[in-house]
């Protein structure tokens, strides 16, 4: 199809930009022999798993469904972490996964015999209590009273007999300097136990494919841990896989005025890009400017009843009209995996752009809304 023929709203995954990111990740693998895993919580578009699997080692999951998807659709290394596993799901999770990471020693004690029976690897998530977040407390696993990871105060080294790996995840959209800082804290608190391990997992949040990301610092951190502790090193980014590799195409449904110019779109922040409200952040919009930067400024909002369903204020060279198409950028990550049907909103189509050809991968309708309820 042509782009102009696409129904809005729709997510468009740009295959060439995805491959660009994959090549950067593969370069890190080649230079360090580390292992890189796709964090499916960020991007679970399995139609592209066969492509992604050509460049990296496998997937990470946050529970049963992601574990099954990773096994069925990529079928390479498959790791899982959850703050607490369900009794009625753990055996199936163990069947699907190669590494099972526990969040507490009580969970380890409860389930480790089942993992060992299946000859799978056991890991523990640690909390170095080293916050590097700025302004995004909702994504800070090292915040006070965090439920994520075992702190040194609660560490029980006498229970490490069958533990083969340690996992820490503290970053969100950050450069390698924050990893370097975090790694120092990890080594100060848990370094003596790292010598007993077979693998160390640096978690996710590494913005490796961002233009200003310092890959040399990342490589230095990986090689240091490999050489000092004689372990395999894993990293499990999500955003880095699809950073700037997808858009959300939307149409203007209505324009209005209430002391400022308003435009209602057929896409919703609350339903289709909830991180806009949760983070919060202002998504980039093609051919637009900051408020008042261009001649015509509009507040863009969704069609739901939620008063706060606001995407942001943007300026344009020309007035907006009903039927105009707008394209939000960097919309592959944490969008499709977080969409919902509040207000009976339909979910956006999912489209793959490949050499200026647009292939519809998935469409949704009334039955998708109804069967959830």
From TrEMBL:
Domain annotation Orn/DAP/Arg decarboxylase 2 C-terminal: ranges: 164-331
User: Which keywords describe this protein according to UniProt?
Assistant: Decarboxylase, Lyase, Pyridoxal phosphate, Spermidine biosynthesis
Indicate whether Phosphoprotein appears among the record's keywords: no
Q: Which residues bind substrate?
A: 239, 275
Q: Name one GO biological process term.
A: spermidine biosynthetic process
Any one GO molecular-function label of the UniProt entry? diaminopimelate decarboxylase activity
Cofactor section:
pyridoxal 5'-phosphate
Tell me where on the tree of life, at the top rank, the source sits: Bacteria
> Would the keyword Lyase be found if you checked this record's keyword annotation?
yes
**What PANTHER family would the database entry show?**
CARBOXYNORSPERMIDINE_CARBOXYSPERMIDINE DECARBOXYLASE, DIAMINOPIMELATE DECARBOXYLASE
Identify the NCBIfam families for this entry: nspC (TIGR01047)
**This protein's name:** Carboxynorspermidine decarboxylase
The record lists the organism as Sharpea azabuensis
């Amino acid at each position: 199809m042509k782009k102009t023929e696409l129904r809005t709203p729709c997510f468009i995954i740009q295959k060439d930009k995805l491959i660009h990111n994959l090549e950067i990740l593969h370069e890190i693998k080649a230079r360090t022999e580390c292992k890189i895993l796709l964090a499916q919580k960020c991007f679970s578009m399995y139609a592209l798993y066969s492509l992604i699997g050509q460049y990296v080692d496998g997937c990470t999951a946050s529970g049963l469904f992601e574990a099954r998807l990773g096994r069925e659709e990529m079928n390479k290394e498959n790791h899982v972490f959850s703050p607490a596993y369900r009794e009625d799901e753990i055996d199936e999770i163990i069947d699907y996964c190669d590494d099972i990471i526990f969040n507490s020693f009580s969970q380890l004690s409860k389930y480790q015999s089942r993992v060992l029976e299946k000859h799978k690897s056991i890991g523990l998530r640690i909390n170095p209590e080293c916050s590097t977040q700025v302004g995004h407390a909702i994504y800070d696993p090292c915040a006070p009273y965090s439920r994520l990871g075992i702190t040194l105060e609660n560490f029980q080294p006498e229970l490490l007999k069958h533990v083969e790996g340690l996992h820490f995840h503290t970053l969100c959209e950050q450069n390698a300097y924050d990893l370097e800082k975090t790694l120092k804290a990890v080594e100060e608190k848990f370094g003596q136990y790292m010598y007993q391990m077979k693998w160390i997992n640096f978690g996710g949040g590494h913005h490796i494919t961002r233009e200003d990301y310092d890959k040399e610092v990342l490589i230095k951190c990986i090689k240091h841990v490999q050489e000092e502790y004689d372990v395999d090193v894993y990293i499990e980014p999500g955003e880095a896989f699809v950073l700037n590799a997808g858009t959300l195409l939307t149409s203007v449904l209505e324009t209005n005025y209430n002391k400022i110019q308003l435009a209602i779109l057929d896409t919703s922040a609350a339903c289709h890009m909830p991180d806009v409200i949760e983070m919060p952040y202002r998504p980039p919009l093609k051919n637009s400017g900051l408020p008042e930067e261009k001649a015509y400024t509009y507040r863009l909002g969704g069609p739901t009843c939620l008063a706060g369903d606001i995407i942001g204020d943007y300026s344009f060279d020309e007035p907006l009209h009903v039927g105009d198409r707008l394209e939000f950028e960097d919309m592959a990550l944490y969008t499709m995996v977080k969409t919902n049907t509040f207000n009976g909103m339909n979910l956006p189509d999912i489209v793959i752009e490949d050499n200026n050809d647009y292939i519809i991968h998935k469409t949704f309708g009334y039955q998708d809304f109804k069967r959830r309820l």
